[in-house]
Amino acid sequence: MALFSFLKGPKSNPSLPLSLASLESDWHCHVLPGIDDGCQNEAQSLEMLLCYTAMGIKKIVATPHVRADFYKNTHTTISAAFQKVQHLIQTHNLPLLMEASAEYYADENFFQLITENQLMPIDNQYILFELPMQNPGLWGTKMIEMLQKKGYTPLLAHPERYRYWHNKPQEWSLWKNTGVCFQLNLLSLTGYYGAAERRAAEQLLEADYIDAVGTDAHGVRHLQKLNELTQNSLFDNLQQLPLLNRLG
């Protein structure tokens, strides 16, 4: 594949991908083919797998969208797509581990899945969920209580992207104090979503609020964008944190 000519290049080649080996795993990505707005086919999934390998990632947690309106994924649809990617890993002899989970949208469907014990946790413990982008909704406290009563740890996806919390650090504190873990999008540190999201990501890191990181990559274009992480001085600090991403 032409996209991955850097795999054969010398170490001095500037097109070589950024190493994420110190992080070891990606806890948020959309690599499964054909079930959400991520990879649309197995060829695109393979491109991402090759890029992950070049970046030194050892494990991928696949987290396709689960929401009542657009992405009505279930354990069955996720598992079927997961098996396709597992087959790609085995066929191409890639040094990657995979885990199937989901990015749950905080809607009525999520509450039903919690009640019916239909969730797919990360490491049998963490439930990755996202809030609406326009407003936090009215169910946050109840949702957290329900997850915790089931023995799960809530893991909030990309808190830096919720603009209604920007310049309101007390809101982050409230969620952290209820036992919610925070997952940062690495892309936010590149300014991919905007300057405000980048600054919010930096503030979360400075406050020591980040528990896990993910690429939130929907395709190889997002993984390539991560080369710009070297332009953010906080990336070095991030790599030293005791993140949940670490294996073993």
From TrEMBL:
GO terms for molecular function: manganese ion binding; protein tyrosine phosphatase activity. Signal peptide: none annotated. Pfam families: CpsB_CapC. Its EC number is 3.1.3.48. InterPro entries: Caps_polysacc_synth_CpsB/CapC, Pol/histidinol_Pase-like. It comes from the Bacteria. It catalyses: O-phospho-L-tyrosyl-[protein] + H2O = L-tyrosyl-[protein] + phosphate. Keywords: Hydrolase. The keyword Flavoprotein does not apply. The keyword Hydrolase applies. It is an enzyme of class 3 (hydrolase). PANTHER family: TYROSINE-PROTEIN PHOSPHATASE YWQE. Belongs to the metallo-dependent hydrolases superfamily. CpsB/CapC family. This is protein-tyrosine-phosphatase. It comes from Runella slithyformis (strain ATCC 29530 / DSM 19594 / LMG 11500 / NCIMB 11436 / LSU 4).
